[in-house]
Amino acid sequence: MSQAPVRVSPLIKFGRWSLLLVGIAYGAAHQSRLSKKEEKVREIEAQQKAVRDAKLAEEKKRSAEAEARALAELSKPTPKN
C-alpha cells in the first residue's frame, strides 16, 4: 500500500538548502546587530542607574531627616495649663 518516495529534483534540493543556509546567515547577522544595539542600551542604562540611585539615596536621606524632625516635634512635652 505504501508508495515509493517521489524523486525530488536536484534543482529544488539545491534551492531548499541554499535558502536554509541564507536564512541561518541572515539570522546570525541580525542577532549580532541586535546584540550590539542592546549592549549600547545597557551601558546607557547603567550610567542612568548610578544617577538614579544617587537621587534616590538623597531623597531617602531627606525623608528620614524630615521624619526624625516630625517625631521630635511630636515627642516634645506639651505645657500643661
From TrEMBL:
Protein name: ATP synthase F(0) complex subunit e, mitochondrial
Record carries keyword Transcription regulation: no
Family (UniProt): Belongs to the ATPase e subunit family.
Molecular function in Gene Ontology: proton transmembrane transporter activity
Keyword Transmembrane helix: no
Coiled-coil region: 34-74
Role summary: Subunit e, of the mitochondrial membrane ATP synthase complex (F(1)F(0) ATP synthase or Complex V) that produces ATP from ADP in the presence of a proton gradient across the membrane which is generated by electron transport complexes of the respiratory chain. ATP synthase complex consist of a soluble F(1) head domain - the catalytic core - and a membrane F(1) domain - the membrane proton channel. These two domains are linked by a central stalk rotating inside the F(1) region and a stationary peripheral stalk.
Superkingdom classification of source: Eukaryota
GO biological process: proton motive force-driven ATP synthesis
Species per Swiss-Prot/TrEMBL record: Drosophila rhopaloa (Fruit fly)
High-level lineage: Eukaryota, Metazoa, Ecdysozoa, Arthropoda, Hexapoda
Quaternary structure and partners: Component of the ATP synthase complex composed at least of ATP5F1A/subunit alpha, ATP5F1B/subunit beta, ATP5MC1/subunit c (homooctomer), MT-ATP6/subunit a, MT-ATP8/subunit 8, ATP5ME/subunit e, ATP5MF/subunit f, ATP5MG/subunit g, ATP5MK/subunit k, ATP5MJ/subunit j, ATP5F1C/subunit gamma, ATP5F1D/subunit delta, ATP5F1E/subunit epsilon, ATP5PF/subunit F6, ATP5PB/subunit b, ATP5PD/subunit d, ATP5PO/subunit OSCP. F-type ATPases have 2 components, CF(1) - the catalytic core - and CF(0) - the membrane proton channel. CF(1) and CF(0) have multiple subunits.
Subcellular location: Mitochondrion inner membrane
Primary localisation category: mitochondrion
Gene that encodes it: LOC108038121
Record keywords: Acetylation, ATP synthesis, CF(0), Coiled coil, Hydrogen ion transport, Ion transport, Membrane, Mitochondrion, Mitochondrion inner membrane, Transport
A cellular-component GO term for this protein: proton-transporting ATP synthase complex
